[in-house]
Amino acid sequence: MTDYEWRQLITDCPQRGYRVLIDQYSNLVYAIVLNKLKSVASQEDIDDCVSNIFVEVFNNAETYSPSSGTLKGYLSTIAKRTAIDTYRRLTYQKNITSSIDQEEIILQSDQKNPEEETEQKLFNQQLWQLIKELGEPDTSIIMRQYFYEQSTHEIAKALSMTAAAVQKRSIRARKRLKIILECKEYMRKDGCYEKLRQG
């Protein structure tokens, strides 16, 4: 079935068009999703993501035009975007992230032994709580920058700020996090909380 024929079919008989879409592209979509999510997702998560992709394409079928590109390309683009969004959501929920500051604050664990793994998990939980306590817009900036991997310009647009303001607040927030963590580790040392207030 050609892309033009499918576009007409989805208009004339949506249920049949949906079935044809799944029959023709389920393997492609599953491969895209599996490639992105296999390291972080359960089989149920993967299946849900695949289903969500087909539902989105079906619900927005009227926006697709064969003259603007192939159905395969259109579906692949949506599949990749949805898989990436799902990956970010799952890693965010599980606190599987890259570093907030590559030199100073590391979230990833080598998991060399149970004690180190448990210690790292506790640290991750504490760090996440500290990020939430930064207050807005700093919490959203750090979340978007390091959990969702958004650029400074993307964050600025989402939060109605300038890119320069986002960058400035990000630097300040990371400095605060570093100081807070130092305070927790060396809380008996004089001057720590005064340093935090000045952060």
Description:
This protein is mainly α. The protein contains nine helices and no strands. The chain is elongated, with a radius of gyration of 22 Å.
Task: Write out key terms for the chains shown.
mainly alpha, 9 helices, disordered C terminus
- Runs in which pLDDT lies below 50 for 5 or more consecutive residues are 96-112, 186-199
| Terminal residue distance | 63 Å
Helix proportion of residues, in percent? over 70%
Q: Number of DSSP helices?
A: 9
The proportion of residues in beta strands is under 5%
Helix/strand order, N-terminal first: HHHHHHHHH
What is the 3D shape? Answer: elongated
Radius of gyration: 22 Å
Mean pLDDT: 76
Could you tell me the number of beta strands? 0
